[in-house]
Backbone:
């Protein structure tokens, strides 16, 4: 793979070329799913290819191919150069990159149990046992379980002399129970919706999740939701479990801090951001309790955004995003860092495969744990507690959001008093974070994986990490999804 | 770039690859196998801040093998089409299949059957579009940028061109092959406190009009400047075709026999009933001249035209082979490649249009909202089919039959059942392209009592 990457750099060299990099990737994955006691999906996939990015006369060009013969790579390199030269037709200013050092490194993410060393029938048996347990509850009409494993090796080479060989193992597993009854569909998922929990781990993740142990509760809750009261509409204190708070961070902090979005690169598709450059260091983003970091280092945890180097060869870093409520930092690339006068990228450029260019993507954007006990977080006269995302939506500048959850609970004097169905809440990002009044401590902090974050044209799907503990927010608008 | 895709993955080459697959499979004592062979070359020129900032091309191939062994099936895929790659993927597919539990409902592979490919489908591959070069895209982008810049605005957009091949072959004699080209141009014009957007797609890139789209986007940005703040509430809306498709397009996964059987479709207990207005008729028609996509499904079954909704009544559903066998009906050619959890879904939505152009809808509206585009649409309630999302890039107030200016964007929470029961007028149906659903043939719609629940900050 190193030879292929270096060969690509040789092939792309030429007049006007001021920078180039090549990423060769070899990807292997396995997906197994069950549905109502049968195999729902079973597949193994392999893919290998190269993406070549080049800066010619101040413009970017990129071409990718899975034809890894010398002529295939030469052809892709030639096309990348042609594309860059064509971009000159609409050039306003030359692309300038913030300086970066040369690195030569080999890194493999921690993986205690190689998921591909566990036979597919053993993995299937684990899922079928959970599937059976879910269907044991009368009223569950659809049980679905799944596992997904990936090993991705990438060799990155650039014209500044970097040569970086990284291998990342990721794993995901989870399930859901759906109940259809009398013109109503209710669902509960574990440990999270949309596929469960995903982390930078091997098969050990599956063993840690206690899938089978939680199945009876999840199935019973799915059925019980039919007879629960509708979540009330109005202003209430809101308590979120850590998985829902992870998605709240993703949408109302993670995306707005992407500097390419701020500068307008995504205006035609994913949108822009309310965090204009004049807000840096000034905006009161949240209450004093709110501290958020963007951290790709292994020390932060085994997140989907954990790596040693980003896809521009910049080392993993930790950047303060919000300190005691004040907005302090963006996620950057070498190009955008230079554009705003910063001396170095903070290493957030990621591509979803060999065929796509790197974009600024979330790494692990996490809310630091607070100092309250869980009891103190729930210690409210009257609040609504919501668990597990069901729907999510936010405007294209990331002000107005609305989330729905699978299940809610009314809290009175710190105790759950009744189950609520169809809970939802909405608000404006900064108003919401400024209403944060309690965050549980590190013992309740979980680094959640979002495996399906979309951005870019052509769209790229990326895995991101979000650590959070359960937290409470004052006077949040609840129930408007069903209003009117 | 590499050799021509049609040469590399033409029908004969796909047959030859499948022969190699069959040879390998027989070596394992396995008789029944299916292969999906796909490939594509895609390029995209992206601009923002009045300059081209991303300019990319990619090509890739894909071979996916599915054996059927004693009631078991599974799949393995690769992008290596050399002899060793084929041997490896066959070994992987057979290995994982043998480890699966048998499925009592699994059918034998679909059997081969001659069928004539309708002539319309041959008009979906254009050599000129497959060969469109970066210079063509860059010049079109530059022209669009200039048009927006002339209005004192900032342009962002994307121009994509590409070609793809999809072939499905199996040991029962099925041999299907399809190729098409596709081009898309979208543009957003940004003014100080407003924006406008326009997009089009076509099989032949020469049918796109980037300059006209850029002018339209710039006009919308200009007309929506200094947006007023209106209260949330129920309004009459005129939804342009892109807004209709992105919202209404969210429901068609439920027109699936498997989804009904699973209890996850909003059509449970509603098939055969009138749930929409008289003026709503919806078809699935792969052969419509404004549609695209292969004329066969993930098992090689030819697609059949479906009447999904006729004058408000839910009529037909899509059936994969397995769903059809369970129900005792004929498969419709809408199944996904096996094994999968979701079964099938319509893929080529065509609405019956009306006769009211958007301008007439506006004229007939005393007070309402004209919506260009919707964004971040997600399901709130799966049975009442309530969706939330935002308006975006051109939201206008209509007063006294005229567009009088821009308004701040709204959040909506709207039931699709209710929406399609409140349609007061439809325009002729056009091929529309949005960002949240597949391209569809849809009209603009004038809808009463649309439920806006919140207003955002811009």
Residues:
């Amino acid at each position: 793979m190193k030879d292929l990457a270096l060969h690509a750099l040789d092939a792309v060299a030429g007049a006007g070329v001021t920078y180039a990099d090549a990423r060769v990737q070899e990807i292997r994955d396995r997906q197994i799913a069950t549905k109502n006691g049968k195999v729902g999906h079973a597949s193994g996939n392999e893919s290998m290819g190269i993406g070549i990015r080049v800066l010619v006369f101040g413009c970017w060009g990129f071409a990718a191919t899975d034809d890894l013969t010398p002529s295939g790579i030469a052809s892709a390199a030639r096309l990348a150069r042609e594309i860059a030269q064509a971009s000159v037709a609409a050039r306003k200013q030359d692309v300038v990159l913030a300086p970066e050092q040369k690195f030569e490194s080999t890194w493999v993410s921690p993986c205690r149990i190689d998921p591909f060393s566990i036979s597919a029938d053993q993995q299937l048996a684990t899922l079928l046992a959970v599937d059976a347990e879910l269907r044991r509850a009368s009223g569950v009409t659809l049980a679905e379980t799944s596992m997904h494993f990936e090993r991705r090796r990438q060799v990155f080479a650039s014209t500044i002399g970097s040569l970086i060989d990284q291998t990342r193992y990721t794993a995901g597993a989870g399930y859901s129970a759906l109940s259809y009854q009398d013109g109503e569909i209710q669902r509960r998922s574990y440990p999270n919706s949309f596929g469960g929990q995903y982390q930078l781990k091997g098969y050990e993740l599956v063993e840690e999740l206690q899938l089978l142990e939680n199945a009876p509760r999840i199935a019973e809750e799915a059925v019980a939701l039919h007879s629960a009261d509708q979540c009330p509409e109005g202003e209430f204190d809101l308590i979120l479990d850590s998985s829902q708070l992870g998605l709240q961070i993703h949408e109302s902090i993670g995306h707005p801090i992407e500097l390419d979005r701020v500068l307008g690169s995504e205006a035609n598709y994913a949108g822009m951001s309310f965090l204009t450059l004049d807000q840096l260091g000034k905006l009161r983003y949240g209450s004093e309790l709110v501290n958020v970091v963007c951290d790709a280092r292994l020390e932060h945890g085994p997140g989907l955004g954990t790596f040693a180097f980003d896809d521009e060869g910049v080392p993993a870093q930790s950047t303060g995003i919000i300190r005691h409520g004040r907005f302090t930092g963006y996620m950057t690339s070498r190009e955008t860092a230079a554009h705003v006068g910063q001396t170095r990228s903070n290493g957030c450029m990621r591509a979803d495969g060999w065929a796509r260019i790197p974009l600024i993507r979330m790494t692990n954007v996490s809310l630091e744990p607070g100092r309250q006990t869980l009891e103190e977080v729930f210690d409210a006269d009257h609040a609504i507690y919501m668990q597990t995302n069901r729907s999510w939506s936010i405007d294209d500048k990331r002000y107005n959001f609305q989330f729905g959850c699978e299940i809610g609970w009314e809290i009175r004097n710190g105790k759950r008093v009744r189950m609520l169905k169809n809970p939802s809440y909405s608000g404006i990002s900064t108003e919401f974070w400024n209403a944060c009044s309690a965050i549980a401590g590190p013992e309740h902090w979980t680094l959640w994986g979002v495996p399906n974050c979309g951005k870019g044209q052509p769209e790229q799907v990326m895995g991101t990490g979000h650590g959070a503990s359960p937290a409470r927010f004052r006077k949040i608008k609840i129930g408007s999804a069903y209003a009117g | 770039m590499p050799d021509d895709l049609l040469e590399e993955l033409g029908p004969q080459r796909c047959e030859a690859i499948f022969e190699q697959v069959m040879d390998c499979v027989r070596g394992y004592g396995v008789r029944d196998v299916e292969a999906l062979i796909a490939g594509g070359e895609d390029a995209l020129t992206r601009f923002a801040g009045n300059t081209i900032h991303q300019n990319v091309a990619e090509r890739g191939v894909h071979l996916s093998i599915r054996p059927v062994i004693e009631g078991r099936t599974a799949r393995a895929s690769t992008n290596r089409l050399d002899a060793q790659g084929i041997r490896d993927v066959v070994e992987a597919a057979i290995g994982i299949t043998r480890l699966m539990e048998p499925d009592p409902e699994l059918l034998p592979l679909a059997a081969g059957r001659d069928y004539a490919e309708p002539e319309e489908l041959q008009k979906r591959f254009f050599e000129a579009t497959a060969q469109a070069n970066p210079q063509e895209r860059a010049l079109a982008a530059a022209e669009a940028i200039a048009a927006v810049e002339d209005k004192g605005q900032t342009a962002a957009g994307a121009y994509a061109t590409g070609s793809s091949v999809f072939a499905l072959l199996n040991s029962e004699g099925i041999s299907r092959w399809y190729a098409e080209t596709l081009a898309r141009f979208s543009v957003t014009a940004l003014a100080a406190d407003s924006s406008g957007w326009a997009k089009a797609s076509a099989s032949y890139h020469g049918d796109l009009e980037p300059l006209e789209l850029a002018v339209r986007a710039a006009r919308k940005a200009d007309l929506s400047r200094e947006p007023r703040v209106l209260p949330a509430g129920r309004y009459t809306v005129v939804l342009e075709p892109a807004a209709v498709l992105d919202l209404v397009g969210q429901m068609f996964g439920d027109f699936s026999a498997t989804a009904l059987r699973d209890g996850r479709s909003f059509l449970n207990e509603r098939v055969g009933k009138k749930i929409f207005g008289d003026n709503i008729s919806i078809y699935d028609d792969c052969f419509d001249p404004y549609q695209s996509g292969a004329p066969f499904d993930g098992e090689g079954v030819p697609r059949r035209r479906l009447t999904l909704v006729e004058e408000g009544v839910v009529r037909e559903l899509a059936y994969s082979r397995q769903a059809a066998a369970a129900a005792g009906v004929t498969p419709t050619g809408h199944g996904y490649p096996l094994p999968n959890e979701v079964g099938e879904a319509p893929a080529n939505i065509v609405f019956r249009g009306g006769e009211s152009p958007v301008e007439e809808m506006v004229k007939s509206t005393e007070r309402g909202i004209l919506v260009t585009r919707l964004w971040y649409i997600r399901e709130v309630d799966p049975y009442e089919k309530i969706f939330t999302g935002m308006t975006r890039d051109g939201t206008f107030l209509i007063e006294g039959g005229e567009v009088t200016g821009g308004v701040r964007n709204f959040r909506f929470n709207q039931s699709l059942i209710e929406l399609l029961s409140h349609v007061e007028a439809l325009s002729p149906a056009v091929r529309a392209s949005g960002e949240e659903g597949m391209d569809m043939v849809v009209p603009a719609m004038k809808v009463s009592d649309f439920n806006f629940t919140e207003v955002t900050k811009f």
